[in-house]
Amino acid sequence: MLECHLFGELRVFLDGQPIEPFPTQKTQSLFCYLILYRHRRHPRSVLINTFWPESDEHSARRCLSTTLWRLRRTLRDEREVPILLIHGDVIGLNPRYPCWLDVADFEQICQDLNEIPGHALTPTQAESLKGAVALYQGDLMEGTYDDWCLVERERLANLYLQALMRLMSFFREHKQPAEAIAYGQHILTLDPLQESAHRELMRLYCQIGDRAAAIRQYELCREWLAQELGIEPMPETTRLYQEIRANARIYTTRPADAWPQASLHITGNTEIHQALMHLAASKAALERAAHQLQRAIEVVEQLLSQQPLP
After folding, report:
1. Which residues contact 151 (CB under 8 A, 6 or more apart)?
2. Each residue of 23-61: b (16+ CB within 10 Å) or e?
3. Fewer Cβ within 10 Å of end Cβ, the chain: N or C?
4. 261 pLDDT tier (thresholds 50, 70, 90)
C-alpha cells in the first residue's frame, strides 16, 4: 500500500512505513508528478519537456533514466506488482498497485458536493466537506516551484477557499456564528482582499452583538485594500459600515457561497474598484498561463515532429 500526503510537507509511506528521503529534488518532483497524474501514461518526451526543457534530447533522456532508476530504488520497486510501469517510452503508475492520496480524496469530496450551495448542505454533507478541508494541510508540495506544480497548487487552493466559504455559509444558516466566524477569519488569512468575506464577518459580529469587532473588521478591510491596491472599499462595504456605526439593524442579503468568483460585474461607481481587483487577481495567473501554453506548444511540436510523414 502506497500512502501519499502531498498537501503541505511531503510524506510518503510504503506498507505503513515512511520511505527513505528522495535522493534529489528532481526525483521527488517526478514522483509527485506521476502520483498526481496517476491515471495517465506519460511518453518520455513529455516528461523530458516538463522536467528538463533546457537540455538537449540526449542529455535529457539520460537524466530521465537516472531519475527513474533513483525513484525505483527509493520505492524499493522490485516486487511482483510494481508501483511504476515502464513500457518502452511510456511511463506511469501501476493501476493495480493500491494507493491512497490525500489530494484525490480532497478533490472527490469537493466535486461530489460541488453543485450544493453551502447554506443548502445537510449536516452529513457539511461533515464530509469538513473532512476534505482537514486533508488540506498546506499548499500542494510546499517548497516545490516547478511550473506544472504552481498551476495545480493554485487550482487546489481555489477549491480549498471555496470549501471554506461554503462551510461559513452552512454554519451561518444553522445559527452557529462562532463557527462561521472562525471559517471567515481563515478565509481572510488566505485571501485578505476578499471583500465579501470582510462584509460577511461584519454581519456575523453584529449578530453576536460585537459591534466594535464589526467596525474593526471594516478598518482592517480598508487597510488591506489601501496597502495592496491603493483603493477604498466598495460602496456596499462602506454603507454596511455606516449602518453599523449608526447601530442600524443588519441584514444578511445573500449566502456567503454566492460571492462572486473571478467574475467582473461593472456597474455604477464600483467600476474602477472591481476592475482593479480583477486585474490584481488575474495578472499573475495570466502570466503563468502564457508560460504553460508555450510549454504545451513546444511539447506538441516535438511530438508531431516524431510522427512519420503520411
Report:
1. 288, 292
2. eeebbbbbbbbbbbebeeebbbbbbbbbbbeeeeeeebb
3. C
4. very low
CB atoms within 10 A of CB 140: 24
For CA atoms 231, 233, 234, 238, give the dihedral sign. negative
The burial of 187, by beta-carbon neighbours within 10 Å (0-12 exposed, 13-18 middle, 19 or more buried), is given as buried
Cell numbers standing for residue 157: 487552493
Q: Which residues pair with residue 140 across a beta bridge?
A: 7
Q: Are 157 and 139 in contact (CB under 8 A)?
A: yes
Average pLDDT, the chain: 85
User: So what's the pLDDT on residue 78?
Assistant: 80
> What kind and span of H or E run contains 188?
helix 177-190
Q: Which amino acid is at 295?
A: R
- How would DSSP label each residue in 81-130? S-SEEEETTEEEE-TTS-EEEHHHHHHHHHHHTTTS-GGG--HHHHHHHH
Cα 76 to Cα 216: distance, rounded to the nearest angstrom: 56
pLDDT grade for 288, boundaries at 50, 70 and 90: very low
